[in-house]
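Something for you to look into today, if you have time. Just paste the record in under my message, thanks.
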Amino acid sequence: MIEEAEVSRATFYRHFPGKEELVRAYLEREDERIRARFAEAARSAESPAQLPALVAAALGDEICGAGFRGCPFINAAAEYPDRGHPIHQAVDTHRTWFRQTLTDTLTAAGHPDPAHAAQVLILLRDGAMVGGYLDDPEQIRTTLEKTIARL
């Protein structure tokens, strides 16, 4: 990792004195990246009702991408199960934002039960992230997109 970053070991550890700080920083960066992608998808969507399909397509691209190793948030939560731990709290912050954003989107789209539908979408996303790593990612992408289209 230090070689990939093209910095000295001393510089690297000045910014990240331990693994936990590095993991937390990575999760925060991933959260920012996902929020930005969601905002861009929302701007490009013709209507709020189109946004879940755009999210499914983006997830499909991610799980089929080179080097995909599963969801960093799910992986971090498994490694740091204590809900009081700062890393687990970073996971919870991301998931709370994602759930609320989906609920708001589905409300704007006129869904009759947006909170429940948002929870279903999160379950589908979680399953796709795990399945995309463990199974055939293309098959998981297709299943995810078809299922979300029916929702």
In short: The first helix runs from residue 2 to 5. The helical segments are 2-5, 9-15, 19-44, 51-63, 72-79, 86-108, 114-134, 137-150. The mean pLDDT is 90.
